[in-house]
Amino acid sequence: MKKIILSIDGMTCSACSNGLEKYLNKQNGIKSASVNLVMANASIEYDEKILDQAKLEEFVKQAGFKSLGEFKEIKFESKTKKEKVKFIIFSVLAILLMYISMGHMIGLPAIEIVNPHTNAVNYVVVLLVLTIAFMIYGFDILKNGYKNLIHGTPNMDTLVGIGVISSFLYSIYGMYMIIKGNHSYTMNLYFESSAIVIYFIKLGRYIDGLSKDKTKEAIQKLVTITPEKATIKVDGIEKEVTLDEISKGDIVVSKPGEKIAVDGEIISGKAHLDESFITGESKPVSKEKGGKVIAGSMNYDGYIEYKAERIGKESTISEIVKLVVEASNTKAPIAKIADKVSGYFVPAVIAIAILTFIIYLIIGQSFSIAISTFVTILVVACPCSLGLATPLAIVVSEGLCAGNGILVKKSEILESAKKVDTIVFDKTGTLTYGKLKIAKIINYSNIEEDKLVQLVGSLESKTAHPIGKAFTDYMEEKNLKTLDVEEFENIAGFGIKGKVKMQDESKAEIKERKEEINDEGKVEAEEIIVGNAKILEKYQIENKYLDDEKTLSEQGNSIIYVAKAKEVIALIGANDVVRENAKEVIETLNKNKIQTIMLTGDNKETAEKIAKQIGITKVVSNVLPSEKAKTIKDLKEENKFVMMCGDGINDSPALANSDIGVSVNTGTDIAMDSSDVILTSNNLNSIVNLIKISKKTIRNIKQNLFWAFFYNCLMIPIAMRNIKASWNIN
Length: 730
What we know:
single chain; 730 residues; alpha+beta; Alpha-Beta Plaits; Calcium-transporting ATPase, cytoplasmic transduction domain A; Rossmann fold; seven-stranded mixed β-sheet; six-stranded antiparallel β-sheet; 26 strands; elongated; disordered C terminus
């Protein structure tokens, strides 16, 4: 199966998007199709053996719309001056039409040349001309309604089209009778009904379009946040270029007051950057050599040079936009229910209108009354609000989440997040900053401490784990270079191992450690094992240092064992700092009766100390990735709705198994791929915000659906009785 997102032109309302979606899903070779009205695109999963892009675009054309090719970017086009002028003109024409056709009924002075009593022919011709103008204005509505009726997916436009054309044709007949001399038809014309129905539908869509423009504009701000041009250094000379001209590896210059052009790493200089658009943190962040910069950040006060790393579609901004677009192309279960109900609602309304028309004729009402009632039922029952109730709320909420540093991959998360009753947190890098520092080294070998750190640090440099970063930072402080590593292996949940080649040593130093020397006079690389206590069990290495481990653990350290030749040669303690607002977040969750659990591969003593510090009462420690996933499954079997928040490779199985997986942005790629939500600000308070937004979104959708159904259900019986009652009174 292959997936493609096509840009669609010609969709004007939810009826259009729903009709296109239904038509696409009926086609052979299409597994699923989701049409997004706000983003004006269609996400299609199809069998590439049966279909290709050209055939998919042909389906779109058959449904009455136009494909603009593969979706590349969000194109924001606000209501143009031309559209506004057109709407104003038709507003004036609508007032004129109503004055001519109904002004005399409420005592307004008649325009003699089009007076229905004295100049009936002029009167009916003017009404016809004005109505034709409105029919042209609303041709897209009539066309879409016809297309959907032909395809067996009648929608709102179908209701409007049938009503408008029926009343228009009947009025044409009345006009013919008037021209023949039968002026009794003068008061039984419905030209103005056809025109005004189209006008009000257009009015609704114009207002709705303004709302959708605001939503798209909010997302578009992410796209346009990067500068159009940047300065790069070529052979020491500064050169101004466009963003498209920047390549990976280029040295880009940023001066005070300028925006960062592309994602990269600072190679020189220091500055305070405003990253609030992506992190939600209003306070400027200090950045210096080695720090990462994000495209769109504002440089407040420093001169920096940075190496371009992620450009174009790979940039953070592009990924955010992609995630927002993909999320808005998925549908929450509540939206699917609304779509399904709408699918039955439209045919039911058409049936009721036809049945009412027939009954009115049977009971002796005139044809004009019957057709007027028929048209009224179709018009008042148009389910446009029903179709918009969910998607607009979802898209607005997704934009709100993105603005708060929460990237939601699937829109159903916005519905399900409110059901969370248990949140499981990883410790290192999630509840803590993951910026570990080497606190204590207990050396049991005859290897010098710096050499020992060099051995372990060279291995750890091959990982993305926070402990690895702690060792590389420590080596930088000690000016120790990284050694060559062979046969490196990451053992998820246990640690790492590999062979490290010692260099720049004298034979005396090597002999003193009683290591083997090869024919070239170099030490043979020996396997080094680094990890937690479980790695010793795995390789059947005796642990003689449990007392030392306990002492380090009680001091809040994460424990790293170093083993060589089936023997522990060192015990290292690394400590971390708890995230600034972790305690506040846990307290808020507990107050909302959401159970919080710490799930970590770290030792029990360290985990419980951190948990007690922030208010978590349940701790599951010393667990492997598979055991983390099992813990999540066990909780779900207890009918818990589980959210898992993590950041590492070992968290990915648990993230995938949870009802909602949340990854912090500093996490590994695999963790973010396994998650449903990414916290770009790395702020745990975003979890609380996500749950709040979810609750408000669902409440908003339910209110929208209620009033949409209430209005339609109320107006249909009124339309069926109203005109008959007024006829009897007259």
